[in-house]
Design a protein that fits this description.
Shape: globular
Oligomer: single chain
Number of helices: 10
Mean pLDDT: 85
Low-confidence stretches: 1-9, 18-24
Structural class: mainly alpha
Number of strands: 0
Order of helices and strands: HHHHHHHHHH
Length: 272
């Protein structure tokens, strides 16, 4: 018998000894998959020139314009102009990222089949949505740092006692506007979403109680703005960062919108 034909050695019981265990390749842990997707979503927004213009550059220009010029008459209630303007610009930044940017990106991903493809991967639908939400929060963190730094350079001195209330308002506003973005992106054609999202952003920025407080809007428009998610977010941020107060009514309005829009997004969203 040749050496190559020798039988493999056996153990005392006649069985061959087990070799090194082999494990089949599997998917990465859920948390890692979600964080990877969140990083991808964040980079896609910050590297896109148009998205960067809407999410960072435009809010900074609005901040400087309102703080350093008087083309918009604002009754600041004794606060400095920059102290009064900065919270509204932060609200505008949240809307630009959580709503407009997310609605447009998701709509075109849906049209191109990207959402349907990712939903069949180990990431899954839940992981994809979680990655999108974390990506929005990461971009908002960049916005807060950049806008906050510019505002401080212009003389902004926020009321530190109201920072926790402002953070809660930002989280509720993000939940509400992200849900609205998904409802819109999952039910309309991509081109319709592009036009609608930009139009809604402009309308809410001008007459939705964000940059101009609801109390300074004419007649019934001011009352209606207080019940909109934009007006509630602007009022809650101004109450916290200007007066150091907790705007309970505005936060409850935001919470109601977040719950209702999340339910609507779940009902209306179509993956393809």
């Amino acid at each position: 018998m040749s050496p190559d034909a020798r039988p493999a050695p056996t153990g005392p019981s006649g069985h061959r000894p087990a070799g090194p265990a082999r494990t089949a390749p599997g998917a990465a842990p859920t948390l890692r998959r979600v964080l990877t997707q969140a990083g991808f979503e964040t980079r896609m927004i910050l590297r896109n020139g148009e998205q960067l213009l809407v999410t960072v550059i435009l809010p900074v220009l609005v901040l400087v314009g309102l703080a350093r010029t008087g083309f918009v008459d604002l009754a600041t209630g004794g606060a400095s102009r920059i102290d009064f303007v900065a919270p509204g610009v932060l609200a505008l930044a949240v809307m630009s990222t959580a709503f407009t940017s997310q609605a447009i990106a998701t709509a075109f991903d849906r049209r191109n089949g990207v959402l349907r493809l990712l939903a069949t991967t180990p990431l899954g639908r839940g992981g994809l949505l979680a990655g999108k939400v974390l990506g929005v929060l990461a971009v908002e963190l960049v916005q807060v740092v950049v806008i906050g730094a510019v505002a401080v350079a212009l003389g902004w001195r926020p009321e530190l006692a109201g920072v926790p209330a402002a953070l809660l308002a930002l989280l509720l506003g993000t939940a509400a506007f992200t849900s609205l973005a998904l409802a819109l992106a999952g039910s309309l054609r991509a081109e319709a979403v592009l036009a609608t999202a930009n139009l809604v952003l402009v309308l809410l920025a001008v007459a939705g109680g964000i940059v101009i407080p609801a109390s300074q809007l004419p007649g019934w428009l001011g009352d209606a703005a207080l019940l909109l998610p934009s007006g509630a977010l602007g009022e809650a941020l101004r109450a916290g960062l200007v007066h150091g107060e907790l705007a309970v009514t505005s936060l409850l309005v935001l919470l109601a919108w977040a719950v209702a829009l999340a339910w609507g997004a779940r009902r209306l969203f179509r993956w393809h």
